[in-house]
Amino acid sequence: METKVVTVPTEKVLQAIDREELIRLAMDLCDLWTPTGEEGPAGRFLYDWFRANEFEAVLQEVEPGRFNAAGILRGVGSGCSLMFNGHLDVSRAESGRIEKSFVRDGMIYGEGIANMKGSLVSFLMAGKALLTSGARLKGDLILAAVVGEVSLAPVGPHQSPRYRGEGIGTRYLLSHGVESDYAVVTDGSEFSVVRAQAGVAYFRITTSGERSYTPFTTRGGTIAESTNAIVKMTRIIQALEDWACGYEKRNRYEFPGGLLVPKANIGAIEAGSPSKPGNAPPDCTIYVDVRLAPGCRPLAVEREVRDLLAKLDIDTVVEMYMSQLGYEGKGEKVEELASVVANCYRAVFGTDPPPPSIPTASMWTDTNLYWEVGIPAVKFGPCQQKYPNRRMVEIDELVKTAQVDALIAMEICSRERRQVSNPGTGV
Is there a single domain that holds both residue 339 and residue 286? Predict the structure, then answer.
């Protein structure tokens, strides 16, 4: 028997979003400790959740013990498909860890709740509400929970799965059979509709010196003449800081509704032994994160850094050990999707979505990977920056996010796919 499209009142779908179930699911997910490289229990948990709730469930082992999980609500017509994307991994760098999530004063407290398990649970509950309300959409709705989005990259001795992030899960998802006509990446955007994201390149910069014991220390006339690698590195750091100021100004990037400013940051330094500072080390290394405007090639930035350091009369070794491109989502389909998301936000919140802040636009997220393969996408998710340590969210905010997500799905998945002569173009 052929299944037909079933349209139900919007209010019925929104009422089917179960606040208490949302809370329980969010807390259960937060109670699974999932730093990058250890997302396996959460992936399996959500795979079981999809199966129990009658979604078509997909489990992808990206690496041993690391699982993407997706739930698919198949369309019953020739409508457009939509994917919601959220990442399972949390940062190890966040101070402390809540062993057990809890609710207090209208807030959920839990590890990774703001970045971004709460947002993920919101679109899961939106999808379930469509099922339980009896709605049957024309197009497929795909709910994807992925591993390895947190900004990490293998370097030197740090080669285990715990260092493989920056899109590894979504890249695997999109290249192993799970695609869609449109996508919403639900990483925190403070409810702005984000249509551009920065690229990123990581650099390891090393300078050498001479081992020496403090009583035998000698000094040259300038820092460049010093034999101490750490002292020499101070000049390199100053040069990079001066360069970064100009780099940010030269590469500001405007897009519809926002401004992206790619920044640079010296995030780590390695040298010597804290327990024996009397010995000057033979070398000193810093690690630099440089964000890229859409259209900027990492190689161009690498050459700029090399040219800068070549002028310092200090021997340096420069290695670019990770790079990802940045993109702006362009075209009629991105315009349509952005308009749908904004309208659905207005329907729930009663106001226009805020414009993207510069930091929100200037980061790398999995949204770039959808644009990279030609899938019209936007980033849209609830707040995270206003919450201390990103370990709390307002329950009402997550419920409203689920309502917005449900409305987005109903709109996009009810649209008829365009019939095109070339299957490689168009939706």
Answer: no
Instruction: Please write the tens of the pLDDT for every residue from 79-115.
Output: 999 999 999 999 876 545 667 999 999 999 999 999 9
Q: Enter the DSSP assignment of 94.
A: S
Contact (Cβ atoms closer than 8 angstroms) between residue 280 and residue 230 = yes
CATH no. for residue 212?
3.30.70.360
At residue 419, does pLDDT exceed 70?
Answer: no
Q: Which are the catalytic amino acids?
A: 89, 149
- Check residues 351 and 426 and name the one with the higher pLDDT: 351
Residue 369's domain comprises 10-198+327-412
pLDDT digit string, tens, across residues 125-140: 999 999 999 999 999 9
Give a yes or no: residue 423 inside a domain: no
Q: Which of 271, 289, 324 delimits the end of a domain?
A: 324
Lookup: tokens for 116:
């971004």
| DSSP SS3 for 291 | strand
**84 near 125, Cβ under 8 Å?**
no
CA–CA distance, 395 with 413 (Å, rounded to integer): 27
Measure the CA–CA gap between 91 and 168, rounded to whole angstroms: 15
